[in-house]
Amino acid sequence: MIIIGTLLLLLPITNNSGTVTPFLDAFFTATSAVTVTGLIVVDTPTYWSSTGQFVIMLLIFTGGLGIMTSATFLLVIIGQRITLANRLLMRESLGVNQLSGLIGLTLKIVFVVVSIQVIGFLLLFINLIQEFPVWTALWQSLFHAVSGFNNAGFVIFPGSESLNSFQHDYGFLIPMGILILLGTLSYSVMLEVYQSRKFNRYTLDTKLVLTVTSLLLILGTIVILIGEYANPSTLGNMSVSGKIGSALFHSVSGRTAGFTTIDFGDMGQHSNFFITGLMFIGGASASTAGGIKVNTIAVLLVAVYSSVAGRTHATTFGREIPQPQVYRALTVLILGIAMVFLVAFYLTVTEDFTFIQILFETVSAFSTVGLSTGITDQLSGMGQLIIILTMYIGRIGPLTLALVLAQREEPAHYRYAEERVKIG
Questions:
Q1: Contact call for residues 234 and 267 (beta carbons, < 8 A)
Q2: Domain ranges in the chain?
Q3: pTM of the complete model
Q4: Block means of pLDDT (10 residues each) for the chain, length 424 residues?
Q5: How many CB atoms lie within 10 A of CB 130?
Q6: How far apart are CA 43 and CA 31, in angstroms?
């Protein structure tokens, strides 16, 4: 998909200059679109023609849908290979019967994903028809509904830095926020919430995703509100209600999507550092969001709390999390940190920016968020290639790693004698 997208974006018809697009610009944009990241090296509304923007929208749609369907399939397979209980659980929550139900599952996912984006399109159109001519409003609504649900962060509003011109337009920001939030949840979570509206009936996975997602949204809102409350370049000149609304929107978007109504380059380092942590976590497994996933951090938090509480196993909500899953979550976390460390270290050597800017850009690429402090287009050619590789690894890495670890998992035929190691 990235190769096809690059070839299409190289064509003169896809840009407004009528010349062949530089290869690195086309390659970077196609990778960012397919991985639903949103980092850009050329201004999307001014550089790309309507044809180019249409190609980018298709890459976003197919990239997001491909990740959701393939990730769900792989997680179903993982679940079916662990225990009979997990098989029954997957069949019950996803409506599949072993592998024979995957075609039906594909159709259901496509139907749900398209339906959500169509509803989002209609809600955005109702708002934008008051600002633009009919055909412009239709195109803008369609593009941003796709970009919003897939957490892509691409924007094509002319003369606007991301969503800056909609800073006080809650008729637009609320539907966008809902689209982004739904995109961060997996198909299985959305289906389970729809089918069973009682929290105590949800599976442990859904309970953890909803709980940790809610906590991250609240925590992010509070930190952004406090950190930027008096900053005249961000929230300082807004009303109190406007500050709260903006902080909430950026807590939703900043963790996974990359849409913004303020310039993150004007934010304080403390705020950017905290948002870096939110980006690293990302959204739920099998969703359009990136990061190491909410499920991963939830399992680790449960394990830490259980250890502090003196329990020998990770337990929560009356259920015990298998020890191999705790190891798997820890592996994803450590390797994710290692990837970010290596990329950030390399960029600090080759690029002339502050460390917090480089770290922010690295995590944004790895977690396929798309937020930037404004340095993306100023990176060297090698720096842009490193970011391209980081976006690619960040999109497929955590899921692929989880699948490989699950496939290698097998009962131990023997165990070694225990010996304690000093901790702390």
A1: yes
A2: 2-407
A3: 0.86
A4: 94 93 95 92 93 95 76 57 43 42 68 91 94 93 94 88 86 93 87 84 90 94 92 89 92 90 86 92 87 92 92 90 88 92 93 91 92 88 93 82 64 79 78
A5: 9
A6: 16
